[in-house]
Amino acid sequence: MADGSARPQAYYDEIKQKFAEERDLRLAYRPEGTGQYTSDLTGALAAYTIDPHTEEIPPRAPIDDEVEVLFIGGGFSALLTAARLRERGVQSIRIVERGADVGGTWYWNRYPGAACDVPSYDYLPLLDEMGYVPSRFYAKGPEIFAHCQAIARRYDLYELAVFGTTITSTTWDDRAKRWRIGTDRGDRMTAKFVICANGTLSKPKLSKIQGMERFRGKAFHSSRWDYDYTGEDLGKLADKVVGIIGTGASAVQAIPRLGAAAKELYVFQRTPSGIDIRGDRPTDPEWAAGLPPGWQQARRMKHIRGRPEDIARAAELAKLSREEKIRRQENANIDHMMRIHARIDEIVEDKATADALKPWYMFMCKRPCFDDDYLPTFNRPNVHLVDTRGRGISEISEEGLIFEDRTYPLDLLIYATGFEVQKTGIYNEIRGRDGREINETYADGIRTLFGVHTSGYPNFFIMGGYQASFQFNLTFMLQTQGDHIAECIKMARDGGYEEIDVSPETEEWWVQEVIAHRGKTSRNADCTPGYYNFEGEFNRRQDGNYNGGFFQYYTHMQAIRGELAKHFNCA
Ligand code: NDP
Fold first, then answer.
1. How far apart are CA 98 and CA 130, in angstroms?
2. What are 242-253's pLDDT values in tens digits?
3. Is residue 221 domain-shared with residue 162, that is, in the same domain?
């Protein structure tokens, strides 16, 4: 074939047809879109948000003071931005965090097998600054959490931090040119700059399942793992029947450990994940010892610019018509997914189970997973795949889960059902100029510059939200935003400005950039539903990522900062 495909187009068209049928099936079963989930974990569901990692946080007197920079949330967004602020001489920095420590995702997610799917040398931020080389190619959860704590110590971020505290209101005081922050602990904090750093996937969500309050066994969400119940080494599960709902990235990591420990394990699957080779390995000490100063930043810049072969490939593709480009990309995606299928056939012994584990959607419609233990787990006699064929579990009794008139009695039920996707990483009420709540501002679609600044919300920065560039390595994107935000704050300080607020014109330019680059991405309407495409609610024109490329995103940021006073109202 002229485009390098080994097979006739009819082969690809047939598979695409099957992808479409599978997607339609899922959409028909769950037409409620994101409404099929709840993250309102109050009342009968309140136990699902309890922090199992920490004893009750002791009461403290309410705080009534002013800081220069306040972070909502204490995960990587806050840590890496705060480090850059310290480098620029900012002294007064407070992290306000709901958990009992910094770490965010890595504070909460301690399920067995938790690890990052991105090479640790790229994922763990500030490695040059910390003089640290991760111990493995893919770092495990405890090492990442420890790295978060080390950053907080190194940059004195514990000093003013408050934990076990949830911000309830963030209001701009236009006369004082300050943000007023209220919390669930009765605090009345004031800050000149506020950085919304609470993550976009941090609020656990549960699939709404009829009868979920009735279940009499033990149940928890994957991000609230109760080791008192399971035992640190899962040893207490030896006589337990365990069920897990979901087969996303969290479940894929937990299932091999559960399979090895539980008496019986039932995996309730709606849509399979694509499982690729992991090939984890310890860091070669010789390689680590030979790393020159600034090695991580050099790696990062290489990624930002892109690999020469990718640039050459993109240049080749650019010469083609849009239709031809899409056709070739889709065919390559299908080849990739068929390799994933072949790997399942090689590893999973039972044919029906192997077939049920095969994902029928384009590469990147769902987050790809990398694991060498997941597929072999289904060869264990105590592990049972309950494939709901796109339906999902919709009923629970006092004993356990019900699917197709059969009840599966369980001692323990784990919801690995993911996290609510925040439009902007915002939970609490945020009122900008004229008391306007940010969700009102976004009523007809998100409006930002770079996903970071919104006009009418001066000295306010959002991290990790939409209208930012898509990045598989999230910390890479967060570091780019963090560098930008720290530099903006420095420029405001150097200019003696009390406020900086993006102009409506520049904001509108970015909204149009986001729309112009929406194009046809792999996470669009052709995809099977999932959190990547708002469970199939694809009509959100500008409420998505910027798809113009990471290098463009980075370059635009630099250019705008070069003319700050032109693009921001600075006063
Ligand atoms: P996901 O949202 O990815 O997965 C939720 C799972 O629950 C899906 O398999 C979903 O099925 C399933 N589900 C929901 N409702 C039902 C139901 N009623 N019956 C049966 N199944 C149901 O959540 P995760 O916690 O796995 O991942 C959350 C985020 O964390 C992702 O961004 C992930 O990439 C990230 N993560 C990253 C890691 C890393 O290495 N960097 C490791 C672990 C997680 P369906 O697919 O049909 O919707």
1. 26
2. 999 999 999 999
3. no
